[in-house]
Amino acid sequence: MLDKKIIIAIDGHSSCGKSTMAKQLAQKLGYIYIDSGAMYRVVTLVALRKGLIIKNKPNIPKVISELKNIKITFEWDEISGKNTTFLNGENVEEEIRQLEVSQNVSPISTIAKVRSEMVIQQRENGKNKGIVMDGRDIGTVVFPAAELKIFMTALPKIRAQRRFLELSEKGQTVEYDEILQNVESRDKIDSTRAVSPLKKADDALILDNSNLTRNEQLKWTVEKAEELISGK
Ligand code: DC
Fold first, then answer.
1. Measured from the CB, is residue 135 less than 6 Å from ligand 1?
2. Looking at the domain assignment, is residue 2 inside a domain?
3. 37 CA → ligand 1 middle, Å
4. Would you say the CB of residue 137 lies under 6 angstroms from ligand 1?
5. Which pTM value belongs to this model?
6. 134 CB within 6 A, ligand 1
7. Number of structural domains, the chain?
8. Which residue lies with its CA nearest to atom 3 of ligand 1?
9. Angle between helices 112-125 and 36-49 (to 10 degrees)
10. pLDDT per residue as tens digits for the range 94-146
11. HSE of 204 in the Cβ direction (CA atoms, 13 Å)?
12. Tens digits of per-residue pLDDT, 23-73?
């Protein structure tokens, strides 16, 4: 009987399938799923719409003063596993995934005040537990007392290979070497930034999925979660 509700924090490197796994896990447990990266993407979208980012450099005071006008909500459909992000009630799920947002989200996510505001909202989402949240600082900063913390990773060349196949299947012409370089440079930026860098929490379990299928990694994670939920 799954009665005790816990918080599950999933952090890790980019392009290693965190959000896919986090969604599948939330579906399996009947938990809420929150995509913390989507929140940084929404702030970036607002900054772009208002012309507050010029050549990858945000106007920090203006971005900060916009925060009070930004209400981010999610609609999580546990049955279909579909997550939709809203900005002040407007569905922005597709727009926040566009290249322009991806290219500008990094500088926005390094603004300390943006991070502290997002963390307040993230904690609010988790106040009743029964939640799976993925990101970069969930187990270290947002929910340091989360009952289950998973740090996901995979070899850079394997992540690049997966991304290459994904983009090729979408009909995009891409160079494997360029993707590998991008994966490696994002690892470096995420891990070395001054505010809330990506790092494994001391008590996080490492999930290296270099040689695991999606089903294998889900099975492993569900087992870990169920052990904690049932108190065994
Ligand atoms: O997971 P994602 O690629 O959608 O995240 C978008 C960006 O936000 C990425 O550059 C890392 C950043 N991010 C962060 O700094 N902290 C989080 N908890 C989640 C994402």
1. yes
2. no
3. 4
4. yes
5. 0.93
6. no
7. 1
8. 37
9. 130
10. 999 888 898 899 899 999 999 999 999 999 999 999 999 999 999 999 999 99
11. 26
12. 999 999 999 999 999 999 999 999 999 999 999 999 999 999 999 999 999
